[in-house]
Amino acid sequence: MKDASQPAPRYHDLDALRAVATLLGIALHAAFFVLPELIYPWPVHDKTVGDDPTYHIILDITHGLRTPVFYLLSGLFTVLLWERRGLRALGMHRLKRIGLPLAVGCFTIVPLTAVAMALTSGREHPYDFPFWVLPILWVFATMHLWFLWNLLLMLVPFIIMVRMGVEFRNPKVWLLVIPISVVAALLMQEPVFGADSMQGILPKPATLVFYSCFYFFGAFFYQQGVAVRRWWTVALLPAAVTFCIGFLLLREYAVEAKPFTHGELPEHVWMFSNTLTAVSALAETAFAWLTCFGMMGLFRWLLSSPSFTVRYLSDASYWIYLAHLPLVIVAHWVFVDWPISYHLKYILTCVSVTGVLLITYQWFIRYTFIGNVLNGPRTRRQRAVRPAAPSST
Fold this sequence. Notes:
Shape: globular
Distance between the termini: 65 Å
Strand content: under 5%
Mean pLDDT: 89
Number of strands: 0
């Protein structure tokens, strides 16, 4: 264990990458209402999109890369905190930064999201629910806050392993998480690019195992002392190839299964039970791992130096992700009938929601108790005072 008296290192590039992975949630959810077909239950849908697959591609790329990247970095920073502060302090830190926002969000953000869905859909199926269920809705669906719940679930085996004396150093052991992630991908059941969706309190085992592989690989990555290299950026090239393979195979399966009746996906199948979905699952897993390394290399290349702007956005990204979903739904409802291109509607949704949340972060979050919980205390930057010019006598 490292000497706690030493200053903790600051990984500016990985901070920036974690922020981008978090903010991509807006890009993902904003794409739902401009998909070429209503394949997800979403209250607002722009019917002028036609057969344009642009936002299906954006959705699949975003879903396939952002969560594996986020969990790998979470595992890395978990070990960093453990080594710097100790196991007890790590647990308290996670309860404050993750557990408390999750608990508050279950009784505020989740109900607000459900209300936004109900009102913007005219309370038609599947959003025709009694409003008395709102305070306990999180029991059935944690909405986009599921990633916080799963971080807490992953922390439990991490703490147990540390108490058992397990070290995250042996490559022969920890590199096994890559083939384990492949097995988990083959055991998924939703024929979509990336891992199965997961919103309930009871997680889907295959999905939890899949994301846990990235989390614990991040722990190994840090304890092994692996240095991020700029040349890792080249991994984004084969990642693009694996995305094309996985995406096209899933589209082929969708055509064969005739999935888009009444906006529904084909029945859930084991990914290993069909040649198209099995090969797609392998391609999706390769895409996730290659993207993790490629994005780390890219951000090491571009954003390894300290930057106030990047640090500010990194801080703000947590609040933006927590609060964005009901605003995205309202923005969809506002823009859907505007007589403009659906591309502009998508851009307006992303920009307006991000802008509103950045303003609220600056005015009401950053320097308050809420900001302290989310990111730790922050102090206002003091403007430099120019010395007065000497008076002439």
